[in-house]
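Sequence in, structure out.
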Amino acid sequence: MSLKIVAKVHAETAEAVLAASVPDHAVAIVNLGGIRHNFSVLKEVAGAAQQLAPALKANAYGLGMAPIASVLSEEGANRFFVAHVSEAVTLRAHLPFATIAVLHGLVTRNVEEAVRLKLTPVISTLEQMRLWLAAAERAGEKLPAMLHVNTGMSRLGLMESDVVQLAADTAWHGRLNILGLMSHLASADEPEKEQNQQQLARFLAAAKRLPPMPLSLANSPGLFLGRDYHFDFARPGKALYGHFVSPLQSPRLRPAVSFYAPILQVAEMAAGESVGYNATFKAPHAMRVATLAVGYADGLRRHLSNTGKLFVAGVACPVVGRISMDLTVIDVSAVPAESVCIGQWAEVFGPHQPLFDVANDARTNCYELLTSLTNRVELVYVA
């Protein structure tokens, strides 16, 4: 069912796609035109001197690496980031000549595959540096690499002592084709947080110690911190899909993803009747409910049980009872009866309910919601 690797692109609107879809499973609609628009906006924010190197990790945030990479490549992107080598294998099959940087770097067992696929490991430890230098010697060529320095995120990255050691012996620089030095901002979505300036200062200090090379610090929210954070290239991810950056920062970004589930049954409930596992909801009065073909096995978070809402015919409909593996029940009493029927689509997020709001209700973030969409959700692409 999933179209995550090879996808047909429809010319129709989202409404037309839903009208043509089989209403027995959830559907996510990815607007490729919206992604093109957002990439163009981000290029304007970055300025002519800075390149954009999109992050397509986790299957392009759950939305399909191949079609999204194709669109971004058409828009001029030629450098991409993924998390690990297995993701790079998929991307390389679709972009044979692009620079593909692997954020997790290397382990012993994937070094030769990285060489064969002409990948660019992002080196975070001295051990990874030794592995890649040895691979370059065996290959008899200067292999591409990037360096990742830890400036405060404290997940991956060369520590200050590692940078000192690399600065003391720069023979590695002549044996590899170093494409850049990067770090990752921990709090860029909080512009006033002091940590942003601290990380910037540490990044500049590390860059000053090392031989000259292109620099990259900004992720999606980092692009909106100002030109001091831009350097040579940025690594946008979430902003490409338009749901994530504050409208105060860029009102021109467009949401490019929407998620829908069909109604399987409509029923009248009497006061006192319960809904779902463990009867966590009891009807306070007579009400009309609809059962939807979506559950946590599709990526709808259980935290939305009895707290979240979906939209039917533009009307907010509270979730009642516990979200189960395959099904969710909503209160449709406020929706005109003629607008509620089997096969009608309910909006999980989209024009009436931004993804950010659903994430807040689910006590999580937008990334987790998108990457939680499972292969049971049909991905449909519109131009």
